[in-house]
């Protein structure tokens, strides 16, 4: 395990961790509010009031402004921002992506970050946007890797060093980049150039980028999703193994009079009520916020409160083992997020490797739940059940049953298992009795396989009048199916 990062709790591929920095330990997952050194919407010294443990700012902007540069070089970054906690500094890669070129070299910006006392520095990587030709993505990835290796040779214990993973939307390049830079032992691994995907609601492709990058990384290292600042997608990203986020959204959205919630965004001018209980919303009406001279300030503060509320909820969900239930609820807030949920579960075999085998209770939240890693894990372990003699498979809602050698229970989306395990995770699942076709189909697939694994046993399946599925035709050939 990385000496600066300790994982304390896990759920799905998500985790709660402790990131040790020169200015203190940060509990992840967390969000680093972005501080514009030229225009501070909310003072850095106030950020702890909202729940911020760590900030991120731009070392390139500081280096290009005489007043900022001189104070940072003289008194240090933390004095410049008036913040005594950890601060990460970006290198100017965003400006590079916007303007095509900037007046600084990789070596210069690394030295500057070291000199001003950044806790986590970032090399001058090349953020390749989505959909570019593969040749460009590969060429810019190689340049990024060269710069990261150069930066690694320049930094020892002065600060932690980030190793951004690039590769555009080519998943094999993302995995290759992650695997290559992992050999050079960076301290934090940001996933770069994903903002365009989020801005265009291409969340399913974002899932591909995260998973392919994670596959190339050591699973114990901290991962930063660059530019991810909307709480609607935090749970999804955390469940895939992201630990750090950075948010300028709280200020940028406020400037456009937009009001953030964990389920989406409203324009303040369209709100009659404020659906939140943060200090801003309980002390103002919607009309008061709309008409306030400091409307942007009020919205920025609300947006930050909501951001960190979601982070706390995610941490609690990890501790309780129900992070995936939260993910499923959040992903139903927008059709593109629902696409991302389906894409995430296409990687259930990968998630299952990291998902704890024991939790409290599995809650079925809809058809997508039948693809969860817990269901996949059960499917893989069907051969562990040895059944001999007669066996009755009864619906989980049936309390009385015919006498037989084996009392088996049928509960979608898992399928068939010994009734004595009904109170053991995950068979203690809270599910709907009026099951949907996806859940029923997965359960029947597992049941058919269980019967096929035990050819010497005699199975009776008590169907129930409401259950209908094409797989019953196959089941009837290997078991006695009764209404």
Automatic annotation (TrEMBL):
Residues that coordinate or bind Zn(2+): 276, 278, 281
GO molecular function, one term: zinc ion binding
Entry keyword annotation includes 4Fe-4S: no
InterPro entries, sorted: ArchSynthase1/Queuine_TRR, ArcTGT_C1_sf, TGT-like_sf, TgtA, tRNA_ribo_trans-like
Pfam family, one: TGT
Enzyme class of the recorded protein, top EC level: transferase
Protein name stated in the entry: tRNA-guanine(15) transglycosylase
Organism for this UniProt entry: Methanococcoides burtonii (strain DSM 6242 / NBRC 107633 / OCM 468 / ACE-M)
Upper taxonomic lineage: Archaea, Methanobacteriati, Methanobacteriota, Stenosarchaea group, Methanomicrobia
């Amino acid at each position: 395990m990385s000496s600066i990062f300790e994982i304390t709790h896990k759920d799905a591929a998500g985790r709660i961790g402790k990131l040790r920095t020169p200015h203190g330990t940060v509990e992840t997952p967390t969000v680093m509010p972005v501080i514009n050194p030229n225009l501070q919407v909310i003072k850095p010294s106030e950020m702890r009031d909202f729940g911020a443990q760590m900030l991120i700012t731009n070392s390139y902007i500081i280096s290009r402004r005489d007043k900022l540069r001189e104070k940072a070089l003289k008194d240090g970054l933390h004095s410049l921002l008036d913040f005594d906690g950890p601060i990460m500094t970006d290198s100017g890669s965003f400006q590079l992506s916007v303007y095509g070129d900037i007046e600084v070299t990789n070596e210069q910006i690394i030295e500057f970050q070291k000199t001003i006392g950044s806790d986590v520095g970032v090399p001058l990587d090349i953020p390749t946007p989505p959909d570019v030709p593969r040749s460009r993505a590969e060429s810019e990835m190689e340049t990024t890797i060269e710069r990261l290796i150069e930066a690694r040779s320049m930094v020892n214990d002065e600060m932690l060093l980030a190793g951004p993973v690039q590769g555009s939307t080519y998943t094999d390049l993302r995995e290759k980049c992650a695997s290559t830079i992992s050999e050079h032992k960076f301290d934090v691994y940001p996933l770069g150039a994903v903002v365009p995907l989020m801005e265009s609601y291409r969340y399913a492709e974002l899932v591909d980028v995260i998973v392919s990058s994670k596959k190339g990384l050591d699973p114990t290292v901290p991962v930063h999703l660059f530019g991810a600042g909307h709480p609607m997608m935090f749970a999804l990203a955390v469940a895939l193994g992201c630990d750090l986020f950075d948010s300028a959204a709280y200020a940028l959205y406020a400037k456009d009079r937009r009001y953030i919630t964990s389920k989406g965004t409203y324009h303040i001018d369209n709100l009659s009520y404020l659906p939140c209980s943060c200090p801003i919303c309980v002390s103002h009406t919607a009309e008061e916020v709309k008409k306030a001279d400091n409307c942007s300030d009020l919205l920025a503060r609300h947006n930050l409160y909501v951001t960190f509320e979601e982070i706390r909820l995610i941490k609690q969900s990890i501790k309780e083992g129900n992070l995936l239930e939260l993910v499923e609820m959040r992903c139903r807030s927008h059709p593109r997020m629902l696409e991302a949920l389906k894409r995430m579960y296409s990687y259930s075999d990968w998630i299952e490797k990291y998902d704890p085998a024991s939790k409290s209770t599995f809650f079925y939240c809809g058809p997508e739940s039948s693809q969860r890693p817990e269901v996949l894990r059960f499917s893989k372990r069907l051969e562990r059940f040895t059944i001999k003699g007669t066996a009755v498979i009864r619906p989980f809602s049936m309390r009385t049953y015919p006498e037989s050698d084996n009392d088996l229970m049928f509960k979608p989306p898992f399928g068939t298992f010994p009734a004595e395990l009904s109170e053991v995770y995950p068979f203690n699942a809270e599910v709907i009795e009026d099951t949907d076709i996806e859940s029923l189909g997965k359960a029947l697939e597992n049941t058919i396989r269980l019967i096929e694994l035990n050819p010497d046993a005699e199975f009776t399946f008590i169907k129930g009048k409401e259950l209908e599925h094409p797989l019953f035709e196959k089941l009837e050939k290997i078991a006695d199916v009764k209404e």
